[in-house]
């Protein structure tokens, strides 16, 4: 028997195919939290391969509260008077001293005055009850905090002073009970006196060496003080000597380094010692200058001061 295709049968088959594809896509999306298409995800992304994820609970989002709450005032500061005592409550909630004559007052005004009196009485009662209740609440909070603090201190003291557990004592491979501070305090030390005497001698020699260095530095300062400029006249004389106008007039375009030698460098000192400089005078110079400087340093070491 051949199947005859009609427009109605084609339309029904298309609807069935569309429904099946829709159900398949919905079931796939429900089993996977990743998108169905991967053409927008690069290959190096961990989401390139679709892996079904387990259902997770939604995280609770804390909505930020804008603004800053003011610091609450301390109603019962330490050392203040008792604000729940009858004298204090009587002083802060004074009763009216006199009553107005209501006979000659208009009825509408009379109602207003009575309402004001009732409102004042309610405010006085609320203030008294509020102070008493606030003090009771403060006492409850203080007791709860004190109990919590005492419990924590007791737990800390117990944990600090409790003995070592047996499993830890038997399985500890590196520390034995003979290496505890109680045993280490009684270890014999036969060379203690010699070691202390040696340390004292070392400290004394160090103090002597530092004293000699300070004395030598003070003597060097005294010897170098001969060239110090301490007066204005000496300063003017030194300036005229270094910056001589006649020399600069006779040598235009020259600098102070052309008149005075350049500062010594390590290379120039080596050239002078080895007589290997780029100047002919250095090649032909003898050792008289170097010998004189060395003899002066030896004399300073022997005399114990700078010369």
Strand and helix map with partners:
Layout: H1 7-31, H2 86-92, H3 107-161, H4 166-171, H5 181-184, H6 192-224, H7 232-242, H8 245-250, H9 256-259, H10 266-274, H11 280-284, H12 288-303
Structure in words:
The chain is mostly helical. Helices cover 59% and strands 0% of the residues. The protein contains 12 helices and no strands. It has helices spanning 7-31, 86-92, 107-161, 166-171, 181-184, 192-224, 232-242, 245-250, 256-259, 266-274, 280-284, 288-303.
Summary keywords:
single chain, 307 residues, mainly alpha, 0% strand, elongated
Mean pLDDT: 80
Find the count of extended strands (DSSP E, 2+ residues): 0
Helical amount: 55-70%
Number of helices: 12
String of helices and strands: HHHHHHHHHHHH
Q: What's the alpha carbon Rg, rounded to whole Å?
A: 51 Å
Shape, please? elongated
Report the major sheet: none
Low-confidence stretches: 1-13, 30-36
Structural class: mainly alpha
Give the CA-CA distance, first to last residue: 135 Å
Assembly type of the chains comes to single chain
- Note the beta-strand portion: under 5%
């Amino acid at each position: 028997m051949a199947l005859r295709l009609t427009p109605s049968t084609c339309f029904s088959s298309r609807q069935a195919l569309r429904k099946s594809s829709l159900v398949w896509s919905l079931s796939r999306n429900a089993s996977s939290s990743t998108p169905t298409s991967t053409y927008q995800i690069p290959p190096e992304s961990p989401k390139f391969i679709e892996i079904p994820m387990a259902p997770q609970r939604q995280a609770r989002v804390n909505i930020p509260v804008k603004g800053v709450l003011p610091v609450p005032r301390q109603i019962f500061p330490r050392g203040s008077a008792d604000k729940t005592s009858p004298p204090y409550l009587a002083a802060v909630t004074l009763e009216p001293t006199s009553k107005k004559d209501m006979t000659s007052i208009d009825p509408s005004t009379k109602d207003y005055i009575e309402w004001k009196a009732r409102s004042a009485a309610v405010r006085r009662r609320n203030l008294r009850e509020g102070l008493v209740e606030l003090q009771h609440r403060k006492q409850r909070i203080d007791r709860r905090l004190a109990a919590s603090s005492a419990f924590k201190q007791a737990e800390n003291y117990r944990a600090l002073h409790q003995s070592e557990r047996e499993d830890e004592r038997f399985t500890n491979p590196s520390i034995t009970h003979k290496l505890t501070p109680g045993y280490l305090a009684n270890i014999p030390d036969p060379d203690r006196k010699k070691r202390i005497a040696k340390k004292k001698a070392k400290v004394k020699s160090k103090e002597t060496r530092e004293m000699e260095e300070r004395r030598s530095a003070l003597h060097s300062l005294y010897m170098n003080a001969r060239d110090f400029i301490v007066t204005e006249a000496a300063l003017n004389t030194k300036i005229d000597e270094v910056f001589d106008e006649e020399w600069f007039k006779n040598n235009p375009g020259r600098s102070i380094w052309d008149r005075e030698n350049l500062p010594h460098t390590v290379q120039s000192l080596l050239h002078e010692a080895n007589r290997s400089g780029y100047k002919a005078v250095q090649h032909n110079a003898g050792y008289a200058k170097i010998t004189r400087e060395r003899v002066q340093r030896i004399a300073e070491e022997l005399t114990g001061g700078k010369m």
